[in-house]
Amino acid sequence: MKYEGALTLREMNSMHPQRSIWLHPARPRSRGADGPVSPDQREPLNNPVRYSPGSNGVHRLALVTALATFPLLFVGGLVTSKGAGLAVPDWPTSFGHNMFLFPWSKMVGDIFYEHSHRLLASGVGLLTVVLVVMIWLVEERRWVRWLGAMALALVIVQGVIGGLRVLLIEEVLAVVHACLAQAFFALTVSLALFTSREWREKNQPIYGPDASSIRRLCLLTFCMIYVQGAFGAILRYTGTRLDAHVVFAGLVTVHAILLAARIHRHYSSEPMFSRPATVLLGLLVLQLALGLASYLAKFTSLGMIFGGSLQVLLPTTHLVVGALMLVTSLVLTLRSYRLLESPEFLVREGLASERFPA
What we know:
With about 350 residues, this protein is mainly α. The chain has eleven helices and four strands, in the order αβαααααβααααβαβ. It has two domains: about 150 residues, no CATH class; about 160 residues.
């Protein structure tokens, strides 16, 4: 049987009245030492998480942390584009001053960009600390608590690597610093999603064609965007591996188009999937244009036409649009693994049975 879109059980049964799918009311737990569990020991399908009074506050703070990370990425990109990464030669101090007491009158030229980056990073680090404390105080799901702890560890490692980059003047550390920044942004967006009401409320699975292949395609697209961004960081700091960056840009383009096409074909009525897919396509078009303009500005004689300001803004905007593509594909990946199921999954997992007429 071929399905052309996402279906409910009633719709599937009406299409095939001679071969109906009947949903079992409960999902059995895994088989224990004493054999199968009894019906009263079964747990419901998609059990919602209890919403405590502090849950809204945790979600809002997670959202603020993710939003604050985005301008940090942009300012970090400006520092690299302007070559201002070593404008402040010491760390954790700034020209011998306490970082937070550095005189504003001395924040001129490249020092302004580098020191602003440090202050923004400190602010995001503080937000992360408060967020993790609130998660451990309020959140009931253990895996979310440990994910928050991972975010705290990552932001600490990121700050140390950024400082060592200044002290040791190692380009490898700069590339690692750029890659971890993208990973941290993705992690903060994940926390904002996991603490949202969407992830706590009871949601029925969405049954439709190509569910498993769409899940894999979402994950593959997310991974390719991250790897392509890593090669972009290598290109920005070393001027090498343009070939790999372009190859992965092509792969990302193909996979993003395929993913959006499949989602709009089968799940166009599901805004949780169709809207991010549309956003991903729009970001892809913008990213390709920015990538081409950045290449012309940096590697060809046409760079003189763009001028100094555009030579800085183009690659920086290219970087943050790539970050937006990364988190958009991440949202699609997380939602697809949570919600999308093929109709055959019901029968295979014993959650439904096929009933044939006598």
